[in-house]
Write a structure and sequence with these properties.
The chain is 47% helix and 17% strand. The chain is an alpha/beta fold. The protein has 4 domains: 182 residues, Acyl-CoA Binding Protein (Up-down Bundle), CATH 1.20.80.30; 87 residues, D-amino Acid Aminotransferase, Chain A, domain 1 (2-Layer Sandwich); 135 residues, Phosphohistidine domain (Glucose Oxidase, domain 1), CATH 3.50.30; 303 residues, TIM Barrel (Alpha-Beta Barrel), CATH 3.20.20.60. The longest helix has 25 residues. Its cofactor is Mg(2+).
């Protein structure tokens, strides 16, 4: 293998091997741009070093050969006493990574060659300034000396001289500073600053390798999900000098504005300085446009090069350059980072310029960026007082008065107050409060806790698991670190994108992108902003490209209508359990408690018209589009009071000798229904098989609602979905009854209802026997929440809060499998079940309705395995549309 590549040997596509910086230096070299000659040591060499603790045997010789060629070309030797070749050593991983060793400049200078450099440049000050920079950078990044010690010494030298900027230090001052710096190195590093130029270079190369495993680099990789085994490349580049006087300088430039995307002259320039001065902000830079006055020739050339780069990379590039005595040199370029808004604008601008096509434009934006643009945000200029930080569970910015129970949330919001519902954790009882609140804050639970999942579904801001906040619901307050107490009614602000919690009211700005999706702002209108125009066009590109259809998880007309505005092509999951809460809970209670057939039938009879009305409204909202209604799924105890509360109530009543007949019956029922593992218990299709009449009532309500809509000249397209099926027999039994009921309603109404009956695939056994199940199912919808839970054996309600952090830290997975589909495990079951199902029933309609349906990476997977649609919460529909388009292009 070859471990070293000359800049003339690589190209921009070799990022894995040469790192981003090295690959782009090679690309620019081959474009004929003025790049100082040099070479790149590959990531492979780094990997060998990291694995074995030793640099590969061949590396030293290869570096020698490349160095010799470089010396030959430059006509001088590294560190040569009378005229030294100097080089920079810079890290360059595939992804740019803060926390890694950055740059050591001026390698090759020593007590001797500094004299030679002074003579050659005709500038003693410059030579000593370069030498002190070398010792400073080398001392800090290679030898690990505290950088402040050098800064302090530099500061002291300036004070002694009574000057404010380092350019005012003269050669003699700098000479003294070098002596001082060398002393710092000796005492702090326990060794002399190396005088041998090759030793300097080799040590710097090893230091770059080592910095791959620095704590900050590791942390950054974990956060950004960058694999730990990529390694970094090392670039050795001949030095050019921006600190050779006023006709020299250094700068950074963007080919267009990374914040707005506008083309123009963006960047900073610093006269008579070396690169790190700009980054360190030591002296004030001037706007790049001013370079035109300072050095017109270099400025014009730079503009020319920027155009070349944009046309070549067909994207926004950022650039580092240096001017040495009027000669422009390119030190780095890369496709530049940009804000989410600029990503959309730039993509459409490049299409208009004819540089990229629509398919490519879709690759230039991401669903995550779109999601970011869809949430209202805190004004970034606002003053804030942070009191805690939890998990960013559902993005957005919410401000309101802290309330500690659902009842108060509802009451206060009805009287016009904005509230934040603060709970230890939430449960289905809190639903009303969650709906009423601006945002939800919990001190326990992870990204799939009840609060997180429900809040995401509602598009409501949520921070969960903010553990340092001590929530005391009884006394209606929470204690924040430091002892401050937030009482009921105190204003707090929560940021669901960062997980931060603030005291007081932080000002919020609404998202124009949501205004657009909601139809309150129109693309093409006079007042529409550029961002909205760009989003509008990119969404059109995505809709043209995508094969996957996008449906919504919605269980009321309001959500259905919003979903439609956001582009939903139907409802993929209407969870009927939400219709059994609130006022209807009592009816459900009566159903559960019924002792006799008659009692049961009566409560079902009362529920029927209510259910029917629910469906009529949803069918109307989704007229002409498919609506998949799932029959009741959760364990019944969820509809009954909490066992402890009820026990207390009964005991109290007993001791006071008050009547408690009903509560006692209720308590007995709660005991009877109590399960150790309710999620693996009496729920889903099992309920339908065990509670006579329940599913029948629901099917009748659906059929009658469809008939009613038909009679009103509507176009209802209902699909009935049976949850938690594990074997085809379960489905067959439910089906038989459902078919009978539908036939009855058809006969009575005279309408042809064409109701499809299908199943969820959310248990491993269902996936494994998909071929048989497809005999009885007209469609499959993968319930990847339960499927993930059962395939991994992870409780979806508990694990994220308990041990996922440890798992993520140990790298067992990079992201929760409840968030992004686990391709290898759960995903392969989905794929196999999809194939098996279609083998039995060609054209079997396949969808997914678990949380993964709105997750960008998962959407790509569902596209690949050939599903027909994904279904997700209304707010994630635009993201799903975009990602489906990206997956197909
Ligand atoms: C699922 O399990 O993926 C699903 C959509 O159903 P629920 O989340 O309601 O259990
Ligand atoms: Mg489920």
């Amino acid at each position: 293998v070859k471990f070293v590549y000359d800049f003339t040997e690589g190209n921009k596509d070799l990022k894995d091997l040469l790192g981003g910086k090295g690959a782009n230096l090679a690309e620019m070299t081959n474009l004929g741009l003025p790049v100082p000659p040099g070479f790149t040591i590959t990531t492979e060499a780094c990997k060998v070093y990291l694995d074995s603790g030793e640099e590969p045997a061949a590396l030293r010789d290869e570096v020698s050969a490349h160095l010799a060629a470089l010396e030959e070309r430059m006509g001088k030797k590294l560190g040569q006493a009378d005229d030294p070749l100097l080089v920079s050593v810079r890290s360059g991983a595939k992804f740019s990574m803060p926390g890694m060793m950055d740059t050591v400049l001026n390698i090759g200078l020593s007590d001797k060659s500094v004299q030679g450099l002074a003579k050659q440049a005709g500038d003693e000050r410059f030579a000593w300034d370069s030498y002190r920079r070398l010792i400073q950078m080398f001392g800090k990044t290679v030898l690990g000396v505290d950088g402040d010690l050098f800064e302090d010494a530099l500061e002291a030298a300036k004070q002694a001289k009574k000057v404010s900027v380092d350019t005012e230090l003269e050669a003699a001052d700098l000479k003294k500073l070098v002596t001082k710096f060398k002393k710092v190195v000796k005492t702090e590093a326990g060794r002399d600053f190396p005088q041998d130029p090759r030793e300097q270079m080799d040590l710097a190369i090893t230091a770059v390798f080592d910095s791959w495993n620095g704590d900050r680099a590791k942390l950054y990789r974990r956060q950004e999900r960058i694999p730990h085994d990529l390694g970094t490349a090392v670039n050795v580049c001949s030095m050019v000098f921006g600190n050779l006087g006023p006709d020299s300088g250094t700068g950074v430039a963007f080919t267009r504005d990374p914040a707005s995307g506008h083309q123009g002259v963006y960047g900073d320039y610093l006269q008579n300085a070396q690169g790190e001065d700009v980054v360190a902000g030591i002296r004030n830079t001037v706007a790049l446009a001013e370079l035109e006055q300072i050095d017109k020739k270099s400025y014009d050339q730079l503009m020319q090069i920027m155009e070349t780069l944009e046309n070549h990379y067909k994207d926004l590039c950022d650039i580092e350059f240096t001017i040495e005595r009027g000669q422009l040199w390119m030190l780095q370029t890369r496709v530049g980072k940009r804000t989410a808004g600029a990503a959309f604008r730039i993509a459409t601008q490049l299409v208009d310029q004819g540089l990229i096509d629509e398919a490519e434009a879709l690759q230039r934006v991401t669903g995550a960026q779109l999601a970011q643009l869809m949430f209202p945000r805190f004004d970034e200029h606002a003053k804030v007082e942070q009191i805690g930080r939890g998990i960013a569970a559902s993005p957005g910015a919410a401000v309101g008065k802290a309330v500690f129970d659902s009842y108060t949330a509802v009451k206060w919001s009805r009287s016009g107050e904005k509230v934040i519902l603060v709970r230890r954790e939430t449960n289905p009882d809190d639903l009303d409060g969650m709906i009423a609140a601006e945002g939800i804050l919990t001190s326990r639970g992870g990204k799939t806790s009840h609060a997180a999942v429900v809040a995401r579904g509602m598009g409501k801001t949520c921070v969960c698991g903010a553990e340092e906040l001590e929530v005391d619901t009884k006394r209606r307050r929470m204690i924040v670190p430091g002892g401050h107490v937030v009482e009921e009614g105190d204003l707090i602000s929560i940021d669901g994108s960062s997980g931060k919690v603030y005291l007081g009211e932080v000002p919020v700005v609404p998202s124009p992108v949501v205004e657009y999706f909601e139809g309150r702002m129109h693309a093409g209108a006079d007042d529409a902003d550029e961002l909205v125009e760009a989003v509008h066009r990119i969404m059109a590109f995505a809709d043209r490209k995508r094969r996957l259809r996008v449906r919504a998880n919605a269980d009321n007309a309001e959500d259905a209508l919003r979903a439609r505005r956001f582009g939903a092509q139907g409802i993929g999951l209407c969870r009927t359990e939400h219709m059994f809460l609130g006022d209807r809970r009592e009816l459900v209670e009566r159903l559960i408690l019924a002792d006799t057939e008659t009692e049961r039938e009566e409560s079902l009879k009362e529920l029927l018209p209510l259910q029917r009305q629910d469906f009529v409204e949803i069918f109307e909202a989704m007229d002409g589009l498919p609506v998949t209604i799932r029959l009741l799924d959760p364990p019944l105890h969820e509809f009954l009071p909490d066992i402890t509360e009820l026990s207390v109530r009964v005991a109290l009543a007993e001791s006071r000798q008050e009547p408690h007949e009903n509560d006692l019956r209720l308590l007995q029922a709660v005991h009877r229904l109590h399960e150790q593992n309710p999620m693996l218990g009496l729920r889903g299709v099992r309920l339908g098989l065990v509670i006579p009449g329940l599913f029948t009532m629901q099917v009748r309500a659906i059929a009658e609602a469809a008939a009613e809509r038909k009679a009103a000249k509507g176009d209802p397209r209902a699909e009935i979905m049976i949850p938690l099926v594990g074997t085809v027999q379960e489905l067959e039994i439910v089906r038989e009854e459902a078919d009978r009921v539908i036939a009855e309603v058809e006969a009575a109404s005279g309408a042809q209802l064409k109701l499809a009956i299908g199943t969820m695939i959310e248990l491993p056994r269902a996936a494994l026997t998909a071929a048989q199940i497809a005999e009885a199912a007209e469609f499959f919808s993968f319930g990847t929440n339960d499927l993930t839970q059962t395939v991994w054996g992870f409780s979806r309600d508990d694990v994220e809060a308990s041990f996922f952090t440890a798992y993520l830290e140990k790298g067992i997975f990079g992201v929760s499998p409840f968030e992004t589909i686990d391709r290898d495990g759960v995903g392969s079951l989905v794929k196999a079940a999809a194939e098996a199902g279609r083998a039995t029933r060609p054209g079997l309609k396949l969808g997914v309705c678990g949380e993964h349906g709105g997750d960008p990476e998962s959407v790509h997977f569902f596209h690949e395995v050939g599903l027909d649609y994904v279904s997700c919460s209304p707010f994630r529909i635009p993201v799903a549309r975009l990602e489906a388009g990206r997956a197909a292009s």
